[in-house]
């Protein structure tokens, strides 16, 4: 099938590459000429495991094309995906200006029937808005051309985006047109074998499903972080509690890892956007407000431990930081806990020596050449001469470091672990002071 994808971000590029991989004829349209030219040379704008070879191969074999020419894009596919960004505006609502611009562009150029598919995370009611913009534009053109608008949210995780897209757990489709369902069945057929993963519903329910899923996951994390704070005060160990409750199949083991807060491009933005949606219709979303507040406070947890240990004034102190990305296997630092940590440490006068396996360029881009941030080439180099080690991201190669050399490199053997990577008892036996999240037992051991 011929498919057009507007927006070469995370969602658009991964979806386009995966659709091309199974044989569809896909063109990606973006206004960023640089991005398009780079892609043609094989330079991929994001780090995502497995994505580069997938894009390269499909591009070389002609199933995946890139262009800035919107008309070419509109002419190409019956299916027109909208996968542009929906950044938060000043009050945290999702800003739809990119979505409506694409909708207008499609309506300006279309000559035949199009199925416009919202892939971006968009508030309930966006499909109506897309439809209104397109109807209006077609009217000014005096063109009487039919079109459909479908909500088909993505659920991919950064770091596992290609796999998530190749083997989706569900394909949510919101539409009021049975013919469109047939077309989408054909489009997604290669991903929908063995058992039917397509969940059909009305458009508004599909739009809300995406927010509800992300907000549910964020709620699980904030809930665990709250219990971890209690565990700490009560002298219990959250890691034991996690296993204890995860074994209940109704609760499950996933997304109940306590830590120094969730970040990324989705959870913080989507929780906030759903809060704004609720408020606009006169409903107070108490749980969502608490989820957000708990997370904001959780990001201040590591700085609080550090100040508890070293005092409020951190002038002259240097901290080794392992992990800048908001989670492993990505270079993305959007809303990362590491940023709150570094900014709080800098305010208190401290220096940071940071290492991340993938996010060094991103840190450089965000913070430039600050005098109080040194980006180091290895995790070992980050430790040299630092007063203590702080961990913000659970990259695999942080899990079993050579503890003796960690101890030798640091001025004081102190670890502030925002991801509970180590066994408190063993690490304390090795001579470290160990601050972790919600591990009351560990706090007791070194007090
Ligand atoms: C998320 C959703 O998982 C995905 O379905 C949706 O489409 C987009 O948003 P993503 O933002 O890529 O994906 O990351 P995810 O793996 O969900 O992690 C989000 C944040 O939560 C990270 O900062 C992570 O460290 C944190 N987290 C996750 C926890 O603190 N504890 C957990 O148990 C799980």
Task: Write a concise keyword list for the protein shown above.
447 residues; alpha/beta; Rossmann fold; six-stranded parallel β-sheet; 19 helices; 46% helix; binds uridine-5'-diphosphate-xylopyranose
Counting DSSP H or I runs of 4 or more residues, the number of helices is 19
- Which homologous superfamily in CATH is the superfamily of the largest domain? NAD(P)-binding Rossmann-like Domain
| Rg, Å, rounded | 24 Å
- Beta-strand content bin: 5-15%
- What is bound: which ligands? uridine-5'-diphosphate-xylopyranose
Broad structural category: alpha/beta
Largest beta sheet, briefly? 6 strands, parallel
Mean of the pLDDT scores?
A: 95
CATH architecture descriptor name of the largest domain: 3-Layer(aba) Sandwich
Shape: elongated
Instruction: Find the CATH topology of the largest domain.
Output: Rossmann fold
Total strands: 14
How would you explain this protein's 3D organization?
With 447 residues, the protein is an alpha/beta fold. The protein has helices at 10-21, 33-40, 51-60, 70-76, 97-109, 126-140, 161-166, 178-188, 203-234, 238-246, 267-280, 286-298, 301-310, 337-347, 360-367, 379-383, 403-409, 424-429, 440-446, and strands at 2-6, 25-29, 64-67, 79-82, 114-118, 147-151, 171-174, 198-201, 318-322, 351-355, 373-375, 388-391, 414-417, 433-435. A 6-stranded parallel beta sheet has the order 3-2-1-4-5-6, with helices on both faces. Helix 17 (403-409) links the parallel strand 12 and strand 13 (414-417). Helix 5 (97-109) runs parallel beside helix 6 and helix 9 (203-234) crosses helix 12 (286-298). It is elongated, with a radius of gyration of 24 Å. The structure holds uridine-5'-diphosphate-xylopyranose.
């Amino acid at each position: 099938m011929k498919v057009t994808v507007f927006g070469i971000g995370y969602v658009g590029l991964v979806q386009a590459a995966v659709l091309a991989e199974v044989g569809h004829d896909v063109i990606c349209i973006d206004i960023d000429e640089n991005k398009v030219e780079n892609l043609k040379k094989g330079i991929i704008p994001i780090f995502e495991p497995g994505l580069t070879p997938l894009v390269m191969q499909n591009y070389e074999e002609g199933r995946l094309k890139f262009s800035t020419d919107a008309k070419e894009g509109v002419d190409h596919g019956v299916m027109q995906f909208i996968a542009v960004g929906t950044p938060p505006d000043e009050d945290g609502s999702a800003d739809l200006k990119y979505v409506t611009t694409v909708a207008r562009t499609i309506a300006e150029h279309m000559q035949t029937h199009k199925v416009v598919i919202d892939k971006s995370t968009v508030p309930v009611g966006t499909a109506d808005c897309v439809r209104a913009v397109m109807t209006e534009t077609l009217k000014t053109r005096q063109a009487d051309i039919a079109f459909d608008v479908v909500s088909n949210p993505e659920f991919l995780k950064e770091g596992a985006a290609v796999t998530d897209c190749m083997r989706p757990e569900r394909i949510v489709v919101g539409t009021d047109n049975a013919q469109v369902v047939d077309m989408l069945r054909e489009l997604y057929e290669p991903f929908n074998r063995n058992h039917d993963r397509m969940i059909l519903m009305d458009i508004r329910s599909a739009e809300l499903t995406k927010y509800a899923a992300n907000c549910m996951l964020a709620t699980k994390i904030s809930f665990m972080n709250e219990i971890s704070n209690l565990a700490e005060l009560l002298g219990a160990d959250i890691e034991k509690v996690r296993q204890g409750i995860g074994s209940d199949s109704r609760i499950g083991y996933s997304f109940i890892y306590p830590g120094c807060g969730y970040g990324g491009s989705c959870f913080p933005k989507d929780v906030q956007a759903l809060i704004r949606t609720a408020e606009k219709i006169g409903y107070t979303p108490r749980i969502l407000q608490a989820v957000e507040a708990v997370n904001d406070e959780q990001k201040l947890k590591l700085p609080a431990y550090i100040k508890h240990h070293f005092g409020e004034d951190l002038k002259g102190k240097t901290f080794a930081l392992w992990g800048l990305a908001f989670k492993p296997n990505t270079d993305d630092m959007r809303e990362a806990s590491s940023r709150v940590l570094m900014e709080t440490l800098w305010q208190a006068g401290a220096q940071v020596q940071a290492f991340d396996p993938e996010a060094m360029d991103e840190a450089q881009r965000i913070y430039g050449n600050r005098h109080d941030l040194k980006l180091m080439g290895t995790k070992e180099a980050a430790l040299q001469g630092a007063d203590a080690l702080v961990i913000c991201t659970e990259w695999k190669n942080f899990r079993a470091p050579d503890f003796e050399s960690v101890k030798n490199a640091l001025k004081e053997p102190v670890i502030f672990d925002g991801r509970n990577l180590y066994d408190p008892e063993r690490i304390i036996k090795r001579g470290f002071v160990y601050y972790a999240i919600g591990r009351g037992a560990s706090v007791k051991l070194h007090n």
